[in-house]
Amino acid sequence: RPSASPTAANEATLATSAALHLGEDPQLLGPDDEAAALALPGPVAVGVGSPRVRRQIWDRWSGEPHLSWPTLVHATSVLGARTTIGAGVGVQAGVTMTCDIRIAEFSYLSPLVTVGHDVRIGRWCLVNPSANLSGGVTVGDGVLVGVGAVILENIAIGVGATVGAGAVVTRDVPPGVTVVGVPARAVGADR
Fold first, then answer.
1. Coil, strand or helix: which one is 67?
2. Full-prediction pTM beyond 0.85?
3. Is 66 a catalytic residue?
4. 54, CA 20 to 30 Å: which among 25, 28, 43, 46?
5. Using one digit for the tens of pLDDT, what is the confidence trace for 12-47?
């Protein structure tokens, strides 16, 4: 059963408390720190998983000329040839990417994710631990991929969709749809 999403109030708090200033004096910004954030120069990393909240942070702060959004790639991750990673992306320990991969701004790949050749990952996505995106997969903006999910070759995951933990996706997923199970089916659809 899919877990409940955070309430709107919790998401609003997360959107303002999940930025970490990476300058000489690193600091976590809290929900009442908008003035402090406006005064900070330099790089800021976002440490929240919710694709919706990641987009809210991007929408609110990406236009601030004094802030920058570093791409953070863990030293144990493997990036293949012709891999392009956008601003504000986080790549955690043990992620393996083959070749010809594009990851757009503000997405996050959790530990031990595997990304096959010719994969495209949109903005504000969260790919949870041990997920496997096979070759030719396209992941739209704002997608959440659950822990241990497998997306088979040449599948498209639509904007704002959710792939449940452990799901095996064998067909394209329309925008905004949640799929679960093996093989993955839309929540509420006939099984």
1. strand
2. no
3. no
4. 25
5. 333 333 444 444 555 555 545 555 555 666 677 777
